[in-house]
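Predict the 3D structure for this chain.
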Amino acid sequence: MRMHQIPPDPEPDDNRVDDHVDDEIDACLRLDKPVSFFLFAGAGSGKTRSVVTALSHLRARHGGRLRLQGQRVGVISYTNAACDEIKSRLEYDPLIEVSTIHSFVWSLIKGFNEDIRQWLRTQLAAEIAELEELLRKGRPGTKTAINRAESVKLKHKRLESLPQIRRFTYNPLDDNRGRDSLSHTEVIKIGADFVTRKPVMKRLLVCRFPVLLIDESQDTNKLLMEAFLKLQEEYKSQFCLGLFGDTMQRIYGDGKEDLGRQLPPDWAKPAKALNHRCPRRIIRLINRIRSAVDGQEQRPRSDSEEGVVRLFILPGDTIDKTAAERKVAEEMAAVTADPLWTGAAADIKTLILEHHIAARRMGFLEMFQPLYEIDGLQTGLRDGSLSGLRLFSQLISPILKAHGRGDKFALAAIVRNGSPLLSKASLVSAGTDQRAQVRQARDAVNELMGLCSNGGDPRFLDILRCIWRTGLFEIPECLQTMAARDDGDGEDEATGADAEDQDPVQAAWRRFLLTKFVQIEPYELYVSGQAAFETHQGVKGREFPRVMVVMDDAEARGFLFSYEKLFTAKDKTKSDLDNERDGKETGLDRTRRLFYVTCSRAQRSLALVAYTSRPDKVREYVVREGWLEEGEVRVLA
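Done. Predicted structure below.
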């Protein structure tokens, strides 16, 4: 794709320099002559506003025609929060179907049960053959070999059960543990395969959605993106594919690396120049960070403030990192003359590399860790959508809070809306004795309150079994076995002593239930985005006045990113050098992009905190690269 070199300084009246972009997109969205496009929209460029503007124009011009033909406009966004934002701006018009990628794909493939069954037969057979080959080559008796053998056994069992499944199910907001359930990964793979190979699926998609807009397209699954691109090439006169994104903000490994480059010549390639979010100093920083990648530059608004950036370098073996970061915040308050950097009223967003770092600092690590170890639970754990967690976070916790503040109206509303004891069916069944049904619900609430009163400190398990005994709420399937058992304090359930504990997912839920319920409140604050912490990856698309970026490779325990290598405080590995030589992506590439994303969240001031064993190397590198000036770097003992 052609690089758009943008002058760094705008003219005083140049804040509308990007207005033409919305006109270019509008010209593409003509149903009789659609033109597919890729919009380059860097950080803070008003991408969501362009999406909404394009949809508003399309709705005004073609809304009647689309409704008459039973068609809709498809919009895929990366998170549920982003979807809700777009829906609200469009006043929840049903003509515009806004969904996450998993929800969108499921809407296409659900009901194709025989095709899904055949796909699973082929896929499971291939996976079994691959695992058996690895078992044949590997050493027997190792943990890896045992896990592979167990996986082969489970896949054979699933393969044998396929003929008995009449209808496949899937829930984008759950862990999908049922025999007939598809996993998140399977839904994406099936969707990509069907859109690529099956004529019926191609026609269905094009007829149902003559326009498909994809937000954050650089992080959309590569297989699926390639399927959409092939579909557009085949149906270009009937189907408009609009991609919104910025390759520098690709932070997930399954995205399409070269998206935006080598597009067909008949695609439109508009680009936005202004960064409406960041102050001038931060825009100069992020332009320098990406200068070695693609030369794209942004310019500030003419009315933007200068802003402040500081880098604080601390020893990697700092013992009390919370105290160290508190000191950084105090220095930022002094440098910026902004009292909201510190004190009881502080309003800072601290970006950390891994969720378990926030869990440790906020006090919910014990409940978080068991579930985080299971790959299939991680997505729902990170966004709070696991049904086993929603029971506690969306029903039990609100009831206890309402009781604590003496809000009987709110408490009654939660029970009335969520308890099967007061459902319409239960009240009808009770006939003339509905008061007894209400008393039963009241007694159930009182028993729950009793667990937490007078200094009570119950576990999740204690809460769960109380709910099971009283019937106050429905128990999610993943927790029903534990709820129904009556074996004292349940400690044996964490040891895996019985056959049922061979299921690692059930074992993880057991370990979770044996932790203290009090952790649910900080966990809920964190996953709802109301906490002071956020991950580097999860913060994309958001903005905050004051941002502290904590870069600590040791605490993150990961291998996909390395700030120490980015800042040359640690040598590249042989793998890094081999990938560079072969033109493949390296951990440094991923880290640079992640650094760009985090720095570009700040609206006023930015504190960078680097923990390292080589402070001199970090300082030397950032100054040499022109990222920071000498006076903007502080080495703290």
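The mean pLDDT is 89.
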